[in-house]
Structures are given as structure tokens and as C-alpha cells.
Amino acid sequence: MSSLALAARDTTTMLRRNLLHARRYPSLTLNLLLTPVMLLLLFVYIFGDVMSAGIGGGNRSDYIAYIVPGILMMTIGSTVIGAAVSVSTDMAEGIIARFRTMAIYRGSVIIGHVVGSVLQILASLVVVGAVAAAIGFRSVDTTALEWLAAFGLVTLFALALTWIAVGMGMASPNAEAAANSAQPLILLPLISSAFIPADTMPGWFRPIAEYQPFTPVIETLRGLLLGTEIGHNGWLAVGWSLALAVLGYLWSKSLFRRDPAAR
Question: Membrane-crossing residues (predicted)?
Fold first, then answer.
């Protein structure tokens, strides 16, 4: 077999391992998925009418349309914590150190974690999307090309955050520390345009919402699904996603190659 075929085989094996772990221990994924679902239901049914008036909408259905893209991005941010915990657990238990001594493609270990996490994220997005559709979310005249662009955007952003989460997991001494270090990935959507428009925030707080990765991604997804204006947010969303993916990849790669005794 060629080196490429061997690398693909080893990566597939590691991917299968991570998917089996996720299937055997679903509680972590379910707990992380519960946060965006509960926030969606809370903001729609408790605050929906008030929030809809705040964004200039007429009723609760207007706010459902507004909030769902942000909740989908929050789903990505919460689900990738599972990748950080899983990687940190493997590091602490010594399985990654053992994989280093085996005659396998070295990158297959972390690539398996990344691909497995992205697949879990996409499955979580389907679940949250189904809940959103059940309570009244509808896209507005979205074309097949726009749906494809939306899928590509969420996949790219999921990949970027997963690489960051993998780096956090490898840098953390244990699973609890990994989960804590990844908490900003849940908190950042809360201070973005996910729940209210950024231009309605106080002047001192508005730059925090505008100059962070979640806001342009949310606005781009909102534009693709609802037909609102995207403007420069599309380029910013792709730029943030690529930058985070490269940063997370280089960080994870350097940590993986580091001497385990120096960890």
C-alpha cells in the first residue's frame, strides 16, 4: 500500500474509534446539546414576544427566525467541548503516548478526533434544526445554492472550532480543565448578535460583539437562510474560520509533537 493509502486507513481506524466512544458514552454529547436547545425554547417561549418587539418584529415567529442562526452557532461552540474533553482524556490516560510508539500515521490520532467531532456537530445541528422547525422556524425562499453555502459555512466553522478545542484538550492536564478552558466557545455567542442586533447594544459593549468570530458567521448564516443583507460579513466569516482552523491545526500539531514528559 502507498503511504497515502496507509494514512487514510489509519485515520479511518481512529475515526471509527472516536465514533464508537461517542456511541457508547452519549451522555457528554447530550448534555452539551441540551444547552442550545434549552436556550432556544427559553428565549422563544419566555422572552419571544418582548425580544421580537425589541428587534422590530411583529410577533414571536419573527424572533424565532432571528434567533435560530445564532443558536445553531452556539450548538457548534458547545459541542466542540466534547472534543477537548475527549482529547484531554486520551492524553491523561496515556493512550496517545502509546499511539506514538505504534507503526501508524501519527497525524491519524488527532485527525480522527477532529473528523469525528465535526460529524457529531453536524448531527447535533440536525437535531437543533429539527427542534427549531418544530416550533415554527422557516427559511425564506432559500435556494439550493444558498443551502449549500450555509452547509459549507457551518462545516468550515465547526472544523475551525474543533481544531481550537483539540489544542485546548492537549494543553490541559485533565478533562475538567479542558472543559473549563473551552467555556469561552459557549460564552462568545452570548455576547454576539445571536440574540439581539449588535447595533442595539451599549456603545462600550458593541465592539466586543462586532469584532469577534461568531457575529459575522451568524450574520452570514442569517442572510443565507432568511434573505437578509450579508454585506462584508461573508468574507469576515470565511476569514475568521480559515484563520482559526490554521491556528488550531498548528497549535495542536506542535502539542502533539511535544515530548510527553514535558507536558
Answer: 25-48, 63-88, 109-135, 147-166, 178-196, 234-251
* The overall pTM is greater than 0.70: yes
Q: How far apart are alpha carbons 247 and 241 in whole angstroms?
A: 10
The answer to whether 133 and 83 have CB atoms below 8 angstroms apart is: no
User: In angstroms, rounded to a whole number, what is the distance separating the alpha carbons of residues 86 and 192?
Assistant: 27
Q: Do residues 149 and 224 make contact, with C-beta atoms less than 8 angstroms apart?
A: yes
Query: Each residue's pLDDT tens digit in the chain (263 positions)?
Result: 566 777 777 778 788 887 787 777 676 677 778 888 998 998 888 877 777 776 766 677 888 889 999 999 999 998 898 889 888 888 888 777 777 777 777 778 888 889 988 998 999 999 999 999 999 898 878 899 999 999 999 999 999 999 999 999 989 988 889 989 988 888 898 888 888 888 888 878 888 888 899 999 999 999 999 888 898 999 999 999 999 999 999 999 888 877 554 44
